[in-house]
């Protein structure tokens, strides 16, 4: 295809009488003026006296065959005086781009460039890669259909086709099906200002000068068009994704089968005992509350202990199937000890607490209380996910209709479209969260069924031994993991600054539910209700939204948030230290006054040893961590506020989990092989996942052009990038983390509850 380029130059600087150039061709008319005027921000203008434009080529048709092109160039001016100009018409030698062959050229605001590309017969999709050694001037690359005129100026390049802003790197994936003629133009435009790419006003025009002449803004660019992946790679990637996570199902079946064989062998050998945790005991033993010597404060004698056991006596005579959710009691009905409120205060403020002291309520009512977590999170998930899905579909539609690829922050060097989706690989990689979340639900359901069967058989270990089995929080965690996959996929439909909270909302809930579950393990009677827990998560998500809006530069927001953060940490610490015996609802300020009084009398006035040393150490370290986060936020005000809050949640969860495991080992409890394996697997997989997470491939904290400088090619199967690997590994890491919480205290299944310490 032959193309012609017209170069014009005029020495006139009179903007009242410009020289007008009109080029008439067979299929169109192209016109411009000299001086050519570009407009920037704040009414600034940029005038150029040299202009060079490529004329829209006309390809010979089979009917007419080769023929000469006839072009008319009209030059006119209304000036009352003579104006000199120069006109030069040249033929372009390298107008058509070739596959896998780099082409270098130069462009400027008044001298844009565009080239033709034709799809080879065996190529259905290509990637246009554009690179430059210089960040500025800011430029735009556009892909347009073969239509005349070609939009190749700053003010009209966005009128047609697909386009991106460019600093040092850009990539656009183009599919054959989008161009019926199997060819397209690649247009390169240099912008008169750099604000669209994160730059500032050119240094030569700082001040009050609003008009600039012939500003030198030339940029050297290199374009390479390479074939994209074939359809077979899509199939391989989907097969790999599903098989990788379905292998976890196979592993779970194998572990369950081996465990079943071991239990049957031990049962047949008659080696079951109430202390080895390997079987079921069929005879009941008297249970007495025990306290260490010297801790007579709050001690309970045999009769008091028996009274405490009578409170949960209904569960000894449970008929089969009585543990169903036939009714839902009000929150006030969950407390089955209203008549001995003073006894509750005595028990929970003992120096040495045991699990029997905090598992005195009716198991049926407590289980129903925790199942509310499950039903509530399903409701939240439905109402949260539906508008999110609708919104991201709208985002994707806007991208497809307008062609503006600056809306979404993809890794364009590894963004593989499928259907209307621009980056299917980022969505597919979230399948692990959904598959592993469902698998975790199945594992929890299996344990729940086995526990119900044991209850129906009235096994002693299910009543008086081991950690009380409440599975509501585990079900909620499984749903949260599945929803994290759904919402992460929604976010990656069009990742940007506005919808990042979709990707993090259920991460907050996962971290919060894990902390609640860890606390509930040995505090089943005093854990937070589902309503207050989800209300707290709602407050956190509201703060995250406010942080997205106001957290960029507003100091007042960070001051208020840091105060809320510190006060909430102190209030929660006081509640944990005194086992919930402070009534925050009645004494909003009294809790802080009492905490200050205890701090003064115990630590300053007489410097006595804290009554609950282990809890005090945990809470001091936890408050130091949270105060450090608050100070960091005040000083640096990170733009990624959602990740900042998520970091607070994760650090608190890791701190609490480490404290729990240390105290467990310190209490001479042991880690069985399965939880030990899960702990090691969690640590290893999280370390690998975080490595890929910090391989930044894009950043909505910057302009789209600056974000594309971080783009990298695919690293797995030619289909997945580093962030996709993070999705795979983080799903596995969360799954192993959940298994740690599920199996961590399996060694206590045959240990009496009055011998299991609370920490």
TrEMBL record:
Q: Any idea where this protein resides? A: Membrane
| UniProt region (Disordered), positions on chain | 283-335
May I have one GO cellular component term?
plasma membrane
Keyword tags: Glycoprotein, Membrane, Signal, Transmembrane, Transmembrane helix
Predominantly, its location class is membrane
Q: Where is the composition biased (Low complexity)?
A: 303-313
- An example Gene Ontology molecular-function term: RNA transmembrane transporter activity
Q: Where is the composition biased (Polar residues)?
A: 283-294
- Decide whether keyword Transmembrane helix is in the record: yes
| Listed Acidic residues bias regions | 326-335
Q: How does it sit in the membrane?
A: Multi-pass membrane protein
Sequence intervals crossing the membrane = 237-261, 373-393, 427-445, 473-494, 500-519, 531-550, 556-578, 616-635, 641-662, 674-694, 725-744
One Pfam entry name = SID-1_RNA_chan
* Keyword Cell inner membrane part of the UniProt annotation: no
Q: Which PANTHER family match?
A: SID1 TRANSMEMBRANE FAMILY MEMBER 1, SID1 TRANSMEMBRANE FAMILY MEMEBER
Q: Which family does it belong to?
A: Belongs to the SID1 family.
Name-wise, this protein is SIDT1 protein
Source organism of the structure: Baryphthengus martii
């Amino acid at each position: 295809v032959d193309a012609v380029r017209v170069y014009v130059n005029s020495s006139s600087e009179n903007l009242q009488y410009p020289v007008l150039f009109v080029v008439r061709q067979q299929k169109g008319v192209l016109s411009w003026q000299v001086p050519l005027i570009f407009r920037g921000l704040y009414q600034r203008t940029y005038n150029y006296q040299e202009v060079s434009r490529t004329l829209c080529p006309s390809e010979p048709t089979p009917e007419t065959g080769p023929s000469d092109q006839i072009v008319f160039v009209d030059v006119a001016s209304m000036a009352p005086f003579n104006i000199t100009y120069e006109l030069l018409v040249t033929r372009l030698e390298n107008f058509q781009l070739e596959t896998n062959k780099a082409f270098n050229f130069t462009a400027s605001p008044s001298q844009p460039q565009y080239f033709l590309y034709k799809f080879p017969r065996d190529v259905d999709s290509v990637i246009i890669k554009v690179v430059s050694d210089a960040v500025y001037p800011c430029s735009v690359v556009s892909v347009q259909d073969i239509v005349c005129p070609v939009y190749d100026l700053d003010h009209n390049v966005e009128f047609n086709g697909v386009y991106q802003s460019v600093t040092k790197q850009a990539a656009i994936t183009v599919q054959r099906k989008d161009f019926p003629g199997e060819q397209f133009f690649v247009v390169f435009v240099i912008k008169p200002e750099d604000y669209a790419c994160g730059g500032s006003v050119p240094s030569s025009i700082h001040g009050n000068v609003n008009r600039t002449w012939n500003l030198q803004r030339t940029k050297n660019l290199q374009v390479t068009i390479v074939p994209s992946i074939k359809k077979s790679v899509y199939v391989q990637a989907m097969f790999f994704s599903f098989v990788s996570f379905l292998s976890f199902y196979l592993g779970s079946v194998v572990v369950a089968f081996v465990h079943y064989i071991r239990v049957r062998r031990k049962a047949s050998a008659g080696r079951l005992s109430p202390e080895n945790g390997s079987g079921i005991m069929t005879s009941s033993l008297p249970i007495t509350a025990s306290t260490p010597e010297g801790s007579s404060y709050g001690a309970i004698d045999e009769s008091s202990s028996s009274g405490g056991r009578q409170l949960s006596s209904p569960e000894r005579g449970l008929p089969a199937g009585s543990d169903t959710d036939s009714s839902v009691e009000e929150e006030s009905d969950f407390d089955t000890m209203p008549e001995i409120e003073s006894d509750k205060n005595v028990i929970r403020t003992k120096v040495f607490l045991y699990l029997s002291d905090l598992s005195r309520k009716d198991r049926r009512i407590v289980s129903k209380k925790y199942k509310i977590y499950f039903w509530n999170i399903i409701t939240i998930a439905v109402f949260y996910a539906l508008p999110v899905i609708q919104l991201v579909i709208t985002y994707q539609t806007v991208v497809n209709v307008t062609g503006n690829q600056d809306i979404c922050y993809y890794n364009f060097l590894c963004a593989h479209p499928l259907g209307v989706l621009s980056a299917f690989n980022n969505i597919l990689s979230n399948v692990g969260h959904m598959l592993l979340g469902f698998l975790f639900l199945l594992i929890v359901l299996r344990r729940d069924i086995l526990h119900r069967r044991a209850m129906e058989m009235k096994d002693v270990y299910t009543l008086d031994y081991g950690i009380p089995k409440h599975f509501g929080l585990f079900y909620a965690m499984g749903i949260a993991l599945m929803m994290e996959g759904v919402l992460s996929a929604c976010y990656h439909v069009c990742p940007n600054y506005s919808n990042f909270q979709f990707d993090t909302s259920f991460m907050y809930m996962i971290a919060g539910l894990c902390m609640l579950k860890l606390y509930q393990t040995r505090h089943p009677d005093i854990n937070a209700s589902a309503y207050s827990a989800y209300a707290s998560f709602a407050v956190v998500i509201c703060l995250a939204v406010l942080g997205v809006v106001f957290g960029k530069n507003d100091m007042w927001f960070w001051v208020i948030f840091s105060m809320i953060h510190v006060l909430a940490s102190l209030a929660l610490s006081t509640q944990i230290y005194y086992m919930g015996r402070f009534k925050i609802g009645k004494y909003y300020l009294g809790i802080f006054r009492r905490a200050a009084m205890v701090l003064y009398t115990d630590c300053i006035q007489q410097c006595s040893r804290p009554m609950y040393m282990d809890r005090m150490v945990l809470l001091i370290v936890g408050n130091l961590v949270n105060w450090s986060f608050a100070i960091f936020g005040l000083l640096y005000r990170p733009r990624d506020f959602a990740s900042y809050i998520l970091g607070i949640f994760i650090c608190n969860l890791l701190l609490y989990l480490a404290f729990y495991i240390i105290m467990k080992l310190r209490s001479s409890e042991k880690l069985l092989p399965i939880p030990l394996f899960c702990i090691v697997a969690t640590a290893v997989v999280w370390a690998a996942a975080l490595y890929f997470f910090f391989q930044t491939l894009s950043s909505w904290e910057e302009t789209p052009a600056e974000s594309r400088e971080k783009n990298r090619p695919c690293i797995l199967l030619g289909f997945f990038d580093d962030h996709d690997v993070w999705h795979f590994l983080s799903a596995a890491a969360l799954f192993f983390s959940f298994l740690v919480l599920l199996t961590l205290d399996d060694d206590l299944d045959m240990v009496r509850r009055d011998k299991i310490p609370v920490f």
